Structure formats: C-alpha cells, structure tokens
C-alpha cells in the first residue's frame, strides 16, 4: 500500500469562501473535527495577515495532525531573514510552513513586476530559510498548470528550485480552477518525467468546472501523493476539492482502496456525515441535500422502480453502504420504510413502540405536516421527543402559558444617550394558579440582550413548583432561519439549552413572527427539561 | 468539427430530485428555457406513469428541440404491441422515444426475475416496435457500467441487441453513480472496440462521487457523441450531470471548443446564468452561490492577493470571462481585503478614490473594526457604500430616528383564540419636524408578520418629503445569524430590498438585540434608496 497524504485548508482557503469568516473558537472546533477525521495536515491560516489566524495559532489545540502556517515567499530586494511577512509566519511556531509563490511567467511580470530570476531566487531562499529554521517546508506552486502551458521550462524551474531548496512537498495548484482532469494528468506526468519525485508532489484544485475531485484523482493516478482540499468544498469562488467527497472515494472505491492508505481510519468514516453537518451548523448554512456521500438525498430513492428494488437488495441502487459514511437510506415513497425509520428514532430517545402500532402512522403524518410548515426535527431532537410523547399520550401538562407581552424600545436616556430596553411579561398557569412574571433583559454591563432573552428570563424566573428543576438551565445557542412554510416564508428558530449536569438539548419553533417562534422553542426547552425529572422526585429533593 | 448532441432530462430524471415535483405549466416553461438554450432533445417525462407527464406531452410547446417520451422496455410474456406501458409511451406522440432496460445480469435475475435471453428479446422487440412506428428510438442501458464489470459479454450483447433493432442511440447509464471517470473512459473504449459506433452512443452519469461532469467528458474523450444531463444538476440522489456546467465547458474550453459543435449557439451562453436562476425561482430554491460558471460566488475574488491582481488583469484569476456566461465579477469586502480591493469595490459603486488617499486607510480600519463586531460586507454591498460615503463626508443626513418602540403580545382574543399582535411606533425627524407613525403587522389574511415587519411598515409609512422615493420599496429577504462580536454573541441581520425599477440591494445590522439589528439594516436600506435619487430631483418629479 502506498501512503497518500491529506492536507486540509478549510481554515485558510476555506475562509476565502464568500460570506465565511471563522472566529478563533470556531477554528479550534474545526481543527478538532479534522483531527477526529484523521487528515495529515491542517493549514490553520495566514498569521500576520489576519488577526483571527494569529490568535488561532496561539490557542491551537493539541492534535495528531501537523499544524501548518500559510504565507508567501519573500519579496525581492529583502533577505528571507528580514522579510516581515515570513517573520510573522515563523512566529506562529508551527512544525510545518506552506509558502505560496508564482510559477507562471505572466504573473511574475504582471502581478509582481519582478524578473523571472528574482522570482526563482525568492522561492529558493524562502524555502531554504524555513528548512534552516527546522520547519517542514511546503511550496504552493500558484497557477502551475496555466504557467506550464504558457512557459513549461520556467514553471518546471520553479518546481525544482523549491525541491532543491529542501521543500518536503511542492503542491501543483490549479489556482483559477480552469484545468480539466485529463490535462492535469498529462501535466503531472510531465513534471514527474522532469525529475520531480511523485512522493514529493501535491495537488490543489478548484471547482470552477465541477472537476475539483476528478482533477485530484487524475493527479494521484499520474503520481502525486498529497491532496489538498477542504471540508464541504469550501474555498475561493466555486470552492476547493471537497475532502468530504474525496476521503470516502479513496477509502471505499477501486483502484484507490486497495492501492493507497491515508491517515484516515476506515472506521472513522462514520463520522463523515456528522462532521459535514457540524461544519454547516457552525456556518449556519443549510446542508446541501445532494452532496455526495453525506447529503440528506445521497441515499434517497425516489423513483418507484428504484425503491422497490432497494427493498430486495440495497446494492441494486447504491454504490456504497450509507451506514459506512454515517448517512442513512431514505425511501420517501415507502410508508413502511418511514415507520421503521421512525421506530429506530424513537428508540434512540428511549421510547419503545411496537411494530404495527397505529400511533406510528399518526406520528409520521404529524411530523410530515409540521415539516411542510417549516419545522425540522433532524436537529431538534427534544421537540421531536415531545411531539412523539404527545401522540402517545405520555406528555404531562406541566404548565400552561396564558399570555405574554414583549416590548422593545429605543430612546434617549436622561444623559441623552441612545439606549434600547427590552421588557417581557409572561403569565403562566401552574396547578390552576396564575403566575405573572416580568423581566428586563440586561447583561452584567447593563446592555440590553433583546426580546428573546427577556422572554426567557421572565419565563425562567417563576415557574411555581417547577422552579427548582429549571434553575440550572441556560440557553447556549439560538439559530434563526427564514424558510418556506407552505407558500409563505416563515421563521424557524432552533434553541440549544444546557443544564447543570451538562445535558444539552435542541428545540424548534416556527412562526411568521420571530418572537413567537422563539417562544415556542423556549416552552419546548423548558418542557423537555421537566420531562427528565418526575415532579414528585424533584419536589422530594427540595 | 464533430457534432455532439445534448439530451436534457430535467423534466424526467430531474423530477426524481427529493422535494421536486413540477406542475405541467412549470414543465412547459422549463421546456421553453431549454429551447432557448439550444439542447437537442428534451425528455419530457414518463407518460402513463405520471399524470403531469401525460398532460405535459398534450400541451407541449412547439420547439426546435426533439421532444422525447420516456418509458421502459416491454415485460416478458407480452408482445411489444400489447404492452400497456409501451402503448402509453407511444400515445404521447413524440418524434423520439427513450426506453430504459436492464443490461446488468444481476438486475435481470434479482429485480426482474426473468432469464437473460428473455431480457435480450424484450430489448430487441421493444426497440424494433418503436422504429416500426416511425419513432426515433433511444435505449437507456441501465446499470451498464456495473453490468459490464459483472458480465462484460452480456452487457455488450444488450447494447448490440438495441443497435441491431434500429436504435438511433444507445445511452450507457451509470445508474448508481459509482463509476469513476477513468473507468468510464476505459469501458466506453471497449464498447466501441466491440463494434458499436461512437456516434450512436450516449452517456448518462450521476454525481454520487462528484464526478458526473468528469465522467461525461471522459466518455466523450473515449468516443460517445451524446451527453444526457439536467439543468442545475437536478436528479435522483446526488443528481445528474449538470448541463449548466457542461455546456460552457464544451463551448469555451479546449480541446472541446475546437473539436465539437453542439446545438447551442455560443451567443446563447449569456442566457446561462439567468436560466439557471429562473429554474431555482420555479423551484423556490436559493441559488447555489458556489455553482461553477453561474453561481454568485463563481467570479467573486475574496483573497487580497487575488483582488489586487484582478485589478491589473482579470485573466490572472479567472478561467473564463464572467460576462460570456451572463454572470458578473464580484470583489467582496472582507477581513482579508487590502486597499486595492477596497478601491475596486468603491469604483463598482461609482465612488472614485485616488490611490494613497488617507480615507482608504480609515475606511479599511472602520470595515475591519465593524467586522470584528460581527458585521459582514461581503453581501451587504449597500451598507458598505453608505459606510464609505460617510467616511468621505458624502452622506447627506436625510433623516434622523428619534426613537422607536415595538411590542409583541400573545393573548386570547374575544373568541378565545390565541393570537399574536405586533405593533411598532417610529418617531423620525425630517428637516427638524418630528414625524410619528404607528403600524401593526398583518398580512392580507390578518395574520401577524412579526416585529421587524411592523417596524418596517411604520418606518415606510411616513417619511415626510422622502415618502415618494420609498413608496415602491419592499423587503424581499431577511437573514439572521448569531455570530461572535468580540467576546459576546450578537445577532447579525441582513435585509434584501427591492424597488419598482427591479434594483435589489442588501444591508446589514448587528446588535445583541435582534430587533435593534433589524432596525439598523432597515434604516440603511431606506438611506441607500434615498441616495439613488437626489431629493431635489425626486421632489421635482412629484
């Protein structure tokens, strides 16, 4: 088996995606996900160019992965030792460093405005400096394929300059994303024929013609042994090669599965779908249903012909087993499959329902009707559990909400400063007694936290005999999406809550009114918490 | 130049997409779009299997495209003339008919439960019957690639049975989507070597490994002369080969551009982006930003290095000219952007700032400081423009907001029903005059639309002398996400607005309070609209 290395650039090229801006804690969480998956390198960002990137390297988690800082080859006219861009990259103190440099003559003259010789010198000296400082050096050969087509001799000289200076890897980059797979294969073969060893070459593709995965595979077929890519194909313009697609392709499909080994443990593939969706969660993006391997539709068999054959043998219409990549089969046409799916889901929440129980059909149509109105139960497990218990008659009526009122006012205070104040009044009924509670929404510094927070504070302030059960509860996340409920756009709110025992649960609310949707999710959150401890027991503990 | 035929199956395989169900008028509109684009065949559906498909063929528009009905080869034990499935397909009266049949021995025994000879006979007789009835016959060889790997002899026999019976085309289908491009190329070459002429072979791929486009190109390289695909890559599971990607690849990129001609007029490529978005409109889907060629991010240059080079020459970071496919270049503002990016961005909004003007530095640090607090200017172009004009002293003080108040109340009405009512009061000052306006937020059916809508209605109700300028303005989208502003979680709201002239613009607001954040974005939206017409001119037009 030959070793193939995976280099992830989600935190660097992935951050070039339009609309994506990771915070430092988000970068740390993504690095931990990549470590769990088993990639070989994490390119964490460009220290010095970006404050969050510098902060990430300072706080970077301990992982088995080789942490890599990204930067640029030195400028002409300055020594590598005195180049401030290189110095910032060195200061990140990562074991590996990846420097991007020009290899296309047109870019050397047009974008940099220096001579071809100066550029070669910049590559050599920058790489040599990193090596002298004890770093594993990578060289990203920018625009390599376009460069090779324009001036093959020069492009190859750049590659060899980096290799001769001690670069562990030279990564051939199709920066503009326009090179088709067959061309990539041909050009890689020429590079190897020129004396560059394949096990020191990498490939970096973009998806501008939807060929980023195919181009990466063509480069591996031609001899490279490192692939650069990103989770969910994030990246500049149309994105980079999608590692979430490449990894199962390399591990599960021939000729790759029996030719190469990677750092990814085949058993870790079950994390692939959850990891892909967690990233979408961090970005507050709707997961792409049609995504290969991990999309909700990737193993959905809608055609009647397909669905009936799948029942006989899943391999009739599936190229891999969905369970292997942590995904699941969906047969939307078959009510039977729906019910067995549902029973499995109920078992996960500790509810056992016999096969054939008519409550299953009722539950399924209730879930479907609500999903048509914009609800989603994929992530809001706690709301799903409440819905199921309600259909089964297992949901106690803990409390009732009589009414609520929230007001948000922006005005000038006595000192003439513009301030915003939110106030909420909630009237609940517990054991026939009306409880009225009111709350403002201020953080410790006296700043207003908005209407949802005000509502939560009022609701959680006095819930009569249940109060002791929710005292340790707090809201930890709040996600809002505008979605389609029937023909109207509605707001979907998902609230994540946590309690003192570290339990975390998610609930959902849907309405045209964002405050109403939030309130529904809040009430579910409290109700789910009350389900966990029977009231009598909670009271006995008082 | 060799002729390459494009066969669109958006209306048949595309309808297998999870969540997609076209109505007959929608099918007609899509057929007209395909005609405008210039594909050769439209597969309109399966008459008899689907009522909307039968209705579509009855009402199908007159096009230059060869309309094709889809069906299945006859069952064993019935003559082609007496097979009711074939009869329904014939009744659609299309000039061409495409019949799917098995070519994988395992499927013949497992899914059909008949002998291999019976299946060959079904293929021959069904195709011959269509030809005898004067139709152009196509045979979709289902699971051909898996079949070839399992039993090469038999798979090839099926192909030749269809060809010998008079099929104009035999389409090699990778039904499960698991065959990689290199394998597709090798197998197609073997089929041609067996005596099947390439100009009677087609390719049908799925995107289960993200290789549908690459697999189609590999088949063309190996000799097939028909490609089947769908608009926007719709289709079963992960979708079919995306014609919106394949068409510009074939027309603009080598070796295809100078080797093949298709029915698509190169000048019709400017319709590509609008057609792709119109289809999303019909499906009520958000267009995929990272889609090759047509996505909003396909020519967005976020990296500072890229943006500065683009200013010198767009070909430095673009593989094709966005205008050719009806798309446009975007240089978003972001944390990564430098001053050149900023100048370019300013020029797009009609603001010229000399290189070296200190206002650029001030603007950049203002943008960065705001992005640290949670703002994003990638998509909120209008808010970016206002911020720039403010730094340059070019932003008139149109109006001032003195205060606002919103209340949301949920209670029982006189009939005992639970209702929610939102009310907003906004006090603005125009030319020293205070204007107070109040509004509820009800849609036509009397349902509450929430606090943001109430605020918008109150703000847009009376803005004194500016009222005529915002009368035609409406909110078209509203996006919310919780993000990190410094150390605190804050809410970011992006609002898309539109006016009567079809202009569309986006603004952003950030606050711990979602209503405050929304209000900030609303005020920006109104202010940007007021910038477009100088007040004097607007007043003169009254």
Automatic annotation (TrEMBL), chains A, B:
One MF term in the entry's GO annotations: 2-isopropylmalate synthase activity
Catalytic activity from the UniProt record: pyruvate + acetyl-CoA + H2O = (3R)-citramalate + CoA + H(+)
Entries under PROSITE patterns matching the protein: AIPM_HOMOCIT_SYNTH_1, PYR_CT
UniProt KW keywords: Acyltransferase, Amino-acid biosynthesis, Branched-chain amino acid biosynthesis, Isoleucine biosynthesis, Transferase
InterPro entries named among the record's database cross-references: 2-isopropylmalate_synth_dimer, AIPM/Hcit_synth_CS, Aldolase_TIM, Citramal_synthase, LeuA/HCS_post-cat, LeuA_allosteric_dom_sf, PYR_CT
EC number: 2.3.3.21
Pathway the protein contributes to: Amino-acid biosynthesis; L-isoleucine biosynthesis; 2-oxobutanoate from pyruvate: step 1/3
GO biological process, one term: isoleucine biosynthetic process
Chain ranges of the Pyruvate carboxyltransferase domain: 4-270
Gene3D superfamilies: 1.10.238.260, 3.30.160.270, Aldolase class I
Top-level EC class as recorded in UniProt: transferase
Family from the record: Belongs to the alpha-IPM synthase/homocitrate synthase family.
Protein name as it appears in the record: Citramalate synthase
């Amino acid at each position: 088996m030959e070793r193939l290395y995976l280099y992830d650039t989600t935190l660097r090229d992935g951050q070039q995606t339009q609309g994506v801006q990771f915070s430092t804690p988000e970068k740390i969480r993504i690095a931990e996900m990549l470590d769990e998956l088993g990639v070989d390198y994490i390119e964490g960002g460009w220290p010095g160019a970006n404050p969050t990137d510098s902060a990430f390297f300072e706080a970077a988690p301990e992982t088995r992965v080789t942490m890599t800082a990204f930067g640029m080859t030195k400028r002409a006219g300055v020594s590598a030792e005195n180049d401030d861009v290189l110095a910032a990259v060195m200061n990140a103190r990562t074991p590996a460093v990846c420097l991007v440099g020009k290899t296309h003559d047109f870019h050397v003259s047009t974008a940099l405005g220096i001579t071809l010789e100066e550029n070669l010198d910049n590559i050599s000296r920058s790489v040599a400096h990193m090596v002298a400082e004890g770093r594993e050096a990578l060289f990203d050969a920018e625009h390599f394929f376009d460069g090779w087509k324009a001036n093959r001799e020069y492009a190859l000289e750049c590659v060899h300059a980096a290799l001769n200076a001690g670069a562990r890897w030279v990564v051939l980059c199709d920066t503009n994303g326009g090179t088709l797979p067959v061309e990539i294969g041909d050009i890689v073969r020429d590079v190897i024929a020129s004396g560059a060893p394949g096990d020191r070459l990498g490939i970096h593709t973009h998806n501008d013609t939807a060929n980023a995965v195919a181009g990466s595979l063509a480069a591996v077929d031609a001899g490279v042994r490192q692939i650069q890519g990103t989770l969910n194909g994030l990246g500049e313009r149309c994105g980079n090669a999608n590692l979430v697609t490449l990894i199962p392709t390399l591990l599960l499909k021939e000729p790759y599965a029996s030719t190469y080994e990677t750092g990814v443990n085949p058993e870790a593939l079950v994390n692939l779908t959850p990891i892909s969706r967690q990233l979408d969660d961090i970005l507050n993006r709707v997961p792409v249903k049609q995504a290969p391997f991990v999309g909700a539709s990737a193993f959905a068999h809608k055609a009647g012909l397909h669905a009936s054959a799948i029942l006989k043998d899943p391999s009739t219409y599936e190229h891999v087993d969905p369970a292997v990549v942590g995904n699941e089969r969906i047969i939307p046409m078959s009510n039977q499959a729906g019910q067995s799916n549902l029973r499995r889901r109920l078992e996960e929440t500790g509810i056992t329902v016999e096969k054939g129980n008519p409550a299953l059909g009722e539950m399924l149509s209730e879930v479907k009707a609500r999903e048509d109105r914009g609800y989603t139960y994929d992530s809001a497990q706690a709301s799903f559990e409440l819905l199921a218990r309600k259909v089964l008659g297992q949901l106690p009526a803990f409390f009732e909400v009589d009414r609520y009122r929230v007001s948000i006012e922006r005005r000038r205070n006595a000192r003439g400063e513009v301030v915003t104040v939110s106030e909420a009044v909630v009237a609940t009924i517990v054991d026939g007694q009306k409880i009225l509670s009111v709350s403002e929404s201020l953080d410790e510094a006296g700043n207003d936290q908005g209407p949802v927070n005000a509502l939560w504070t009022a609701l959680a302030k006095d819930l009569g005999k249940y109060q002791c059960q929710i005292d340790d509860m707090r809201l930890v996340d709040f996600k809002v999406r505008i979605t389609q409920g029937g023909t109207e756009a509605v707001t979907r709110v998902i609230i994540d809550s946590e309690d003192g025992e570290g339990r975390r649960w998610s609930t959902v609310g849907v309405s045209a009114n964002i405050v109403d949707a939030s309130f529904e999710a809040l009430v579910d959150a409290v109700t789910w918490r009350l389900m966990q401890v029977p009231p009598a027991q909670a009271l006995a503990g008082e």
